[in-house]
Amino acid sequence: MPDFTDRLRPSQPDGPSTLAREREQSNISVDELGRHLLADNGFLERQARILPIVQREALFSKEKQQNLSRPERFKLGLARAKLLRRLADKHDWGNLDYKMAQYLVDDVSPYMLHTEMFITTVREQASKHQQAHWMPLIESWRIIGAYAQTELGHGSNVRGIELEARWETDAKEFVLHSPTLTASKWWNGSLGRIANHAIVVAQLLLPSQGSPRQYVSHGPHPFIVQIRDMKTHQPLDGVVIGDIGPKYGYVTMDNAYMLFHNFRVPHSAMLSRYASINPDTGIYTRPELPAVVYGALTYVRANIVHHARLVLARAVTVAVRYTAIRRQFHDRDGERTGPEMAVLDYSTVQIRILPLLATTFALHYTGLAMRTIYENTRNEFERGNFQTLAHMHSMSSGLKSLCTTLAADGIETCRRALGGHGFGGGSGLIQLNNDYLSKPTVEGDNWMITQQLAAYLIKKMTAAVQSPNNAAADEIDRRFKEFLSARCDPGLNLPQHDVLDSDDDIAKSFTLRATVLVFCSARFGSVGALLGVC
Amino acid sequence: MPDFTDRLRPSQPDGPSTLAREREQSNISVDELGRHLLADNGFLERQARILPIVQREALFSKEKQQNLSRPERFKLGLARAKLLRRLADKHDWGNLDYKMAQYLVDDVSPYMLHTEMFITTVREQASKHQQAHWMPLIESWRIIGAYAQTELGHGSNVRGIELEARWETDAKEFVLHSPTLTASKWWNGSLGRIANHAIVVAQLLLPSQGSPRQYVSHGPHPFIVQIRDMKTHQPLDGVVIGDIGPKYGYVTMDNAYMLFHNFRVPHSAMLSRYASINPDTGIYTRPELPAVVYGALTYVRANIVHHARLVLARAVTVAVRYTAIRRQFHDRDGERTGPEMAVLDYSTVQIRILPLLATTFALHYTGLAMRTIYENTRNEFERGNFQTLAHMHSMSSGLKSLCTTLAADGIETCRRALGGHGFGGGSGLIQLNNDYLSKPTVEGDNWMITQQLAAYLIKKMTAAVQSPNNAAADEIDRRFKEFLSARCDPGLNLPQHDVLDSDDDIAKSFTLRATVLVFCSARFGSVGALLGVC
């Protein structure tokens, strides 16, 4: 409907001219910076190749999605995810291509648990024989899998989950059974509507060696289980599945609950790369390191760390551009003529946004470092060396907490810096915030897993104090030992670090500070004894 | 559909038994505390009387509202608001009764701008003659009004709004005209769908005394304007109205944009209790104090301050109850038998939740104090005394910023303390958070209006320094003068305040600290010169 507003223009200077002038003032080469940051793994080439393909698809338009009901929004997310898979087949995309397309489409895929946790768990914890059977089915999406670990009553304390997998020696089957309501699997994504299979984590109950009628728990183990009929898609007898209802974000994810009633699965259901049961004797073989069963969680944490930079970069970009364009009030010390002051020129805006711009770069390099640690550890792991697993696990825990807190709080700081318009859908920060606010609590609550890192560091420091002559196992060890051997050396005094002029000295100071804090925590149980280091 | 899950119970100890035991351990009388906090203005009696009435209405059930589309959710909010009005008529509710019912129904009313800003502006800024005409129409809802002040380009800087109201001497009419796109009224609630009238704030343009063909702006003034046809509900010719699209929260509010094209309104449209134009001579009479035109905003800010306590109380109640029930991990120093530890017993949870419990009480007393300041000022105001207006305005600005930041950040801290379940709709914190996240930026951005308080305090301090013998005008003045006369008195030394054992001394210390900070800011332009007070 044409009306008089069609002829109206914004008051001057408008957004495009303001941004053009701001950009002219910078001597940074955007292309060069882009290559420095994102050329790794062919990110920029991949983006340039895939963007036009997804841009052509009307289904990916975001124009009306915020007005939809939850069921409609889920269906839209599902249709997009299916289209992405078809595009992947058509263009013969590899895994990184597919992930780039997902990133550009900017919607949580209902298949995410299938393509991440389900496949990763089978790849890492299934025996070669199991992998040969399952991987073709998974990769072709002939089966769709969810990851069912968290329960209504237990998330962080995985060892406390209640679902039972009782081994019946005679039938040579496991019996999955939920003894209570709090044993309900809960939050499990890709499960409520789309999965027909799931990795189900349950307490492995085996007959006691002494009295075979009694059962002993051997802790949580993963099972691969068909949960729905392949034709009717109805849950199988003895399985109940349902939607857990509305959430803060993740509106396109079918997070679900699931309970079992004496549901029988075959011996082959237990993923047996590390732990296994001899079907004839019932003898249980333990994993070399119990920690390996948490491999998929560590993978997801490392991914979250690597992802945080892109999330905060988006929020900061929105904030910088908007506050450069937005003008409000004349400078009180100026002549009060001409355009009002750009909001970005207020110190009260700069102290909020500019540190977050710097944080984005810090998150970038942290994400790359995390990825390197993960890949190196996986390589060692494939060679049968599990020594660096604890290091990777503690790094991924500490950094997952730090990076997601910085990014989540940073998005909200950016949103508020947009003033009223930050509350509007046009800001582009609403779904970003709603989805990302899951990150500080998901895959290990930030407050909880930070303590895993702390416990690890204290253990390492205690070992270094007790056995000063052992060789350093890794970089943390090396730094701890350096500190311990030199700790009463006056050369360590902080003022000798030229933190104002030397980047290296800033890093050294932070390293020393962290080491001293660990030392005091390990030795005195608190950091209050800082002055008693020597 | 009955199934095996119907027979399942939660693992023990369950929620009700845990809460019962926690409550047994407290010797605080809930009833007495409730009366102490909420008996004022008959809050508890009113709640007890109105709760059963609204509980009977199926329309107020929240069960499925989070699954609705935005248009459906708006219609539900509208239906609820109409029902509330019918209930008010049926039960002969007064204004406080009506507000209690709204609070209990816990949905943003699409009529909120009508019942708050629209009616308040007419009551405060319309002449007696205008009030006699409009108030019966407004109170009976025969007309529905919005409040159209904020524009796409200007929110905080009200003086910068672009909509023009040009006085045409010959026609004795005002011509409302939006010269640019950025002059679009924007964010105005109750406007997109339901209002047929609006308070429209526009730059008053009058012919220059010297050259009548030139116009001079006399700043923003409020006009009461019919904007839609009373029968067809279509916008009148020369008016364009539309929805501004999805928002973070306020899903039941029809926030809108509005533009005018040479739209003529009669002389009587300008609210003329303070400012007015003689229709015959065109002579403009200024308000005694220009600040009075912001009266409605101050009213809303004071209300926001008073409201924050109830919002945070709700979030803290959810967090305390949930973390008392939720158990995770056995005490590492305990025997690792029996139930796991309540999450509330972890110090990492207590340091987040318990200060917010205390903050809730602080917000409560702050809210009461704000209300008292507001009511006293309004009373003075009715007697023609505007002297305390600046005090009220600065208090409402500073406290609006402080209280909404504490409450908004507090809700999110509570939500995260619930772990994964805080991300779920069952937490009850999602709509609360989504709606409340408007508060740090709406009705004066928190970072901006805090500076209004700072400027006011610095001005007061400067006056106290320059004229030490003037009588103190208010409590702030008195404290400033006390400080100035005694500032080199060693008795002021902080250590003499027994902040660990004396509540009075804590308050005195905070007062002294605030006063010293204002003094340093006023005298040295920064607080860095703290040591140079004497």
Automatic annotation (TrEMBL), chains A, B:
This is Acyl-coenzyme A oxidase. It comes from the Eukaryota. The lineage of its organism: Eukaryota, Fungi, Dikarya, Ascomycota, Pezizomycotina. Residues 294-458 form the Acyl-CoA oxidase C-alpha1 domain. Residues 30-144 form the Acyl-coenzyme A oxidase N-terminal domain. It comes from Paecilomyces lecythidis. Residues 1-26 are annotated as: Disordered. Pfam families: ACOX_C_alpha1, Acyl-CoA_ox_N. Gene3D superfamilies: Acyl-CoA dehydrogenase/oxidase, N-terminal domain, Butyryl-CoA Dehydrogenase, subunit A, domain 2, Butyryl-CoA Dehydrogenase, subunit A, domain 3. InterPro entries: ACOX_C_alpha1, Acyl-CoA_ox_N, Acyl-CoA_Oxase/DH_mid-dom_sf, Acyl-CoA_oxidase, AcylCo_DH-like_C, AcylCoA_DH/ox_N_sf, AcylCoA_DH/oxidase_NM_dom_sf.
